[in-house]
């Protein structure tokens, strides 16, 4: 008797495999028998009939060629006769070697005799025409050759009829044999299915009986917390499973009695900690159901449900933008720790700003939920806005007196108010340079204020890249020529128009070109190039000037960064930062490659999509 579960299951498999194997062998044998009968039916007789039809066609064409021959076209008639003679003989010899029925050989021998006579008549016809003319040839054709032709056709019809009759008889035999084979296969299949079903059912019932007892015991534990010891009736793996289940049930009962109070105590402590946090906080499981939530979160989202635990977060929070952020982060398995600010409206309609932190909860490397913490930064946002407004106001207030200073300096420098000494002109030049630098700082701060206030200041439309580069080069050509610097540009023909704010993109190019001029000397070259790469617009501004220390190629894009150079006046430190901000608003990036003494290359990359 088989004692192991593996052995019992193997016994079921063996029974099924034997039944299927026996059924397969019988089916294969029957299929081979049917295949052989059908092959004999379709192959031999059909090929004989096909050969007869081919001989008829060839003989008919020979008759037509004899008419051509008699009528005077001997060359064409002789060629056609020879071709069809070969075709007739090929099919004749095939038929002679494919004799399958009684009496078929007699017909083939007669056909051989008649066709030999037909061939001899052709040569006789040739002599008659040669000696006696066409009329005698026509008489011989109808008196001898036509009679010979009809005899051959009749013989071919007899061969064809004989094979057709045998095909019909063979078809009937095959059909009867097929019916017998089908009925036998069906009966054998049904018998195999019934035997396999009842035998397998009997064996499975014996195997599953102890397993069903274990399932019933688990259900009792789940519903009634009743630990009933199972009776072990087998010595196989299921018997061992029942024994281990009894041991586990006893341990669970013991564990529950000793630790249930401790678990409840720890849960209460967790709830107390959650309630003590002064920021909105909620804990959700992986299905977005709320497991714990504090009062601050309930107040922030004006949740009216008295028992939010167990409810879906989407049912409690009506702000779709908030849940969209949560869903995007959790869907991508991200950890978001106060990286961005989200805006919410409270029940009074006031806009509040929150930094959001999301942490994943894991147990034994398995994701079980998330902790979501919101930090109110509304006050900080208000301070930030006040600071921006202050800088904008100060910049505007500086603009008017600076303009007056620049105008006054220009008047003094022009000598319209009187001649200046060398020392006075030197001081005036210093005042003018400082005024220009301060004016640039104020202009950049005003532009910076606009950029930080809203992205709506960008007026995007399709612009020709070549036109934008050409406009920037034209506006800086004069100062480049004055400084002895060569300024050139080139735009590839395949560069397409780009949806962008053309005015601000020209401002970026102007800033890069002016910086390059300030870092170049007489005879240096500044080259601007526009081209496509990976469906992105690339604009490079390359100069052969003094270059930038390699470690500073990323720092120069930071706000208020100024690099010291004894030959160059310091600027405001805002230009490249604003360039970076404008390009970022176009979903692009700007980079710098340089080193001291090797010039510099600034690259703007903006995607077309």
Which short descriptors sum up this protein?
Four Helix Bundle (Hemerythrin (Met), subunit A), five-stranded antiparallel β-sheet, Helix Hairpins, protein kinase activator activity, Beta-Lactamase, 4 domains, PAS-like_dom_sf, alpha+beta
Short description:
The protein has 609 residues and is of the alpha+beta class.
Write the layout of secondary structure elements.
Elements lengths: L4 H67 L2 H23 L7 H29 L1 H91 L12 H40 L4 E5 L4 E4 L1 H6 L12 H4 L3 H12 L4 E10 L5 E13 L2 E11 L1 H36 L8 H32 L7 E3 L1 H18 L3 E6 L6 E3 L1 H17 L6 E9 L2 E8 L31 H11 L3 E6 L5 E8 L2
Parallel strand pairs: 7-9
Antiparallel strand pairs: 1-2, 1-5, 3-4, 4-5, 6-8, 9-10, 10-12, 11-12
EC number: 2.7.13.3
Pfam families: HAMP (PF00672), HATPase_c (PF02518), HisKA (PF00512)
Protein name: histidine kinase
Shape: flat
- Measured by DSSP, the beta-strand proportion falls in 5-15%
Mean pLDDT score: 77
Largest sheet: 5 strands, antiparallel
Uncertain residue ranges: 566-570
In whole angstroms, how far apart are the ends? 74 Å
Percent range of helical residues: 55-70%
CATH A-level architecture of the largest domain: Up-down Bundle
């Amino acid at each position: 008797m088989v004692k192991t579960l593996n052995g019992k299951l193997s016994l079921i498999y063996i029974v099924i495999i034997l039944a299927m194997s026996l059924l397969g062998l019988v089916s294969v044998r029957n299929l081979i028998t049917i295949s052989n009968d059908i092959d004999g039916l379709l192959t031999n007789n059909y090929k004989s009939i096909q050969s007869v039809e081919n001989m008829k066609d060839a003989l008919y064409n020979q008759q037509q060629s004899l008419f051509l021959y008699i009528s005077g076209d001997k060359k064409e008639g002789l060629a056609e006769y020879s071709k069809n003679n070969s075709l007739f003989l090929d099919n004749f010899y095939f038929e002679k070697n494919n004799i399958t029925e009684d009496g078929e050989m007699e017909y083939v021998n007669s056909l051989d005799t008649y066709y030999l006579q037909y061939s001899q008549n052709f040569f006789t016809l040739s002599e008659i025409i040669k000696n006696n003319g066409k009329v005698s040839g026509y008489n011989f054709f109808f008196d001898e050759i036509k009679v010979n032709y009809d005899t051959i056709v009749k013989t071919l019809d007899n061969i064809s009829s004989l094979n057709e009759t045998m095909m019909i008889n063979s078809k009937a035999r095959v059909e009867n044999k097929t019916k017998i084979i089908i009925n036998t296969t069906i009966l054998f299949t049904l018998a195999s299915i019934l035997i396999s079903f009842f035998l397998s059912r009997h064996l499975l019932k014996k195997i599953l009986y102890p397993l069903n007892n274990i399932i019933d015991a688990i259900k009792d534990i789940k519903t009634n917390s009743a630990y009933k010891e199972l009776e072990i009736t087998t010595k196989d793996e299921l018997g061992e499973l029942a024994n281990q289940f009894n041991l586990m049930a006893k341990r669970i009962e013991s564990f529950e009695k000793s630790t249930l109070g401790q678990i409840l105590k720890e849960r209460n402590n967790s709830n107390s900690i959650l309630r003590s946090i002064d920021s909105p906080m909620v804990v959700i499981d992986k299905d977005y159901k709320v497991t714990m939530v504090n009062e601050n979160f309930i107040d922030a989202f004006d949740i009216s449900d008295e028992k939010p635990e167990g409810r879906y977060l989407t049912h409690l929070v009506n702000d779709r933008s908030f849940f969209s952020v949560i869903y995007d982060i959790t869907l991508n398995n991200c950890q978001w720790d106060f990286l961005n600010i989200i805006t919410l409206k409270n029940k009074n309609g006031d806009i509040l700003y929150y930094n959001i932190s999301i942490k994943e909860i894991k147990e034994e490397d398995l994701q079980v939920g998330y902790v979501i913490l919101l930090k109110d930064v509304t006050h900080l946002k208000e301070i930030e806005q006040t600071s921006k407004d202050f800088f904008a106001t100060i910049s505007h207030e500086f603009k008017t007196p600076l303009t007056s200073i620049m105008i006054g300096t220009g008047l003094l420098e022009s000598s319209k108010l009187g001649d200046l000494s060398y020392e006075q002109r030197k001081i005036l030049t210093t005042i003018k340079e400082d005024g220009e630098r301060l004016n640039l700082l104020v202009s950049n701060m005003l532009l910076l204020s606009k950029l930080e206030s809203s992205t709506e200041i960008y007026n995007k439309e399709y612009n020709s890249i070549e036109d934008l580069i050409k406009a920037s080069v034209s506006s800086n050509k004069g100062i480049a020529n004055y400084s002895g610097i060569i300024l050139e540009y080139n735009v590839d023909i395949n560069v397409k128009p780009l949806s962008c704010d053309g005015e601000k993109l020209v401002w970026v190019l102007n800033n890069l070109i002016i910086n390059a001029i300030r870092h170049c000397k007489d005879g240096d070259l500044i080259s601007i190039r526009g081209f496509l790469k990976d469906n992105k617009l690339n604009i490079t501004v390359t100069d052969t000037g003094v270059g930038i220390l390699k470690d500073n190629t990323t720092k120069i894009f930071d706000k208020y960064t100024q690099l010291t150079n004894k030959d160059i006046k310091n600027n405001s430190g805002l230009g490249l930062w604003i360039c970076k901000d404008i390009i970022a608003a176009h979903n692009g990036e700007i980079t710098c490659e340089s080193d001291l003494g090797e010039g510099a290359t600034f690259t703007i990359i903006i995607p077309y999509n």
